[in-house]
Amino acid sequence: MGYLLNRDGFTRVLQKLAENRRLYAPVNKIGEGRYTDVDVVRYDFITEAAEIELEKKSDYAFKEILTPLSETLFFFTENEVKEADYDQREVIVFLRSCDMHAVKRLDAIYLENKFADPFYKRIRDRVRFALIGCGHSYEDCFCASMGTNRTTEGYLFSVDLIDGLYHLDVKDPDLAPLFAAEAEKEQDVEARYVTENEVKVTIPADVPNSIYKDGLWEEYTARCINCGRCNFACPTCTCYTMQDVFYTDNGKVGERRRVGASCMVDGYTNVAGGGQYRRTNGERMRFKVLHKIVDFRKRFGYDMCVGCGRCDMICPEYISFANIINKVNQAVEGGADNA
What we know:
The chain is of the alpha+beta class. The protein contains ten helices and 14 strands. Strands 3-2-6-7-8-9-1-10 form an eight-stranded mixed beta sheet. The chain has a four-stranded antiparallel beta sheet with strand order 5-4-12-11, with no helix packed on it. A two-stranded antiparallel sheet has the order 13-14.
C-alpha cells in the first residue's frame, strides 16, 4: 500500500517506531568531513524525518550497525567465560538498493559459510530495513552493471522525497495503519531506482590464473598508499582481527574483541616467523579485486561488489575500483585473443 506524508506526519511515524526500536539512517554531518568545512554523510540514530539525508549518497556504509568496528564478544576469567550483553531492541536501517544487496553478501559470509557466526546472527536477527529510493544515479555508482540497482523485497517500507512529500510503499501490513493514520493521500507507490549509470563495468565470465602475474597490478604498487579507506567505506568488506585484552588490575581476566581490519594495510597477512603473504600494495589490490569479482562468485554464485562506488569516492589517490575491473576484463580478453 502506498502513502504520501508530509514531513511532520512522517516524523510522527518515525517517533512512534522509535518508541521500542532504534532507527539508523544516513545523516549529513555539517563540517565533519575529511577537510575543513566539508560535510560527510554517515549513519547515525534518527528520530525525525528532516534528519534523514535522502538526496546525497552516504560516504560510508551502514555495516558498522551489523559488524561494529570494535565488538566485545565475551569476557573471561581463569575458569569462566561470559558472553557480552547486547541491546535486544529491534533496529530499522534505511538503505539504498545497492546496500540492500550488500546485506545479502554479509549474510552469505557470516551465516551461510558452513558455520553461522553467532555474534553476527544475534544482531542480524533483530535488524529490519527501510529502502531509500534512488531518483538518479550518483557520480561513481555502477550498480546497474552489478545488478544491484533495484530491490523489490526484504524491506518494511520504501521512502522517496518528491516535491516535498514522502512517498512510501509500505510492505509490512502491521505497519500500514501507522502510516495510514498520518497520510495526506493513499495511492500506488513504487520505489524509484536507476536503470543506467554513467560508470559502466564489464566483469569477465572466466578469469584465468595468468591474471595473477599480469603487469596491471604494478600500477597500484606505485599509486596505492595502503591506507585502508576503501575497505572501511565498502559495505561488503568484512576483514577483522581478534584481540584479547587483559585487565591491568588482574592479568588473568579480560575480554575478547573483534576489531575491523583491512586487507589493504601492510601487516594484515603477517604470520609467525616473519612471513608475509602479500608484501606489495599491488599484491594487496589484486587480492581485494579478485575476491570481489572472482572468488566470492565461485562460492556463492554472484559478485561481492555491489557497485556503490564509495571506494572511488573515498580514495585519496583517486584510484577507481570500476576502472580496475575494466582493466582486468581487458587483460582477460587480450589474453584470450593471444591464446
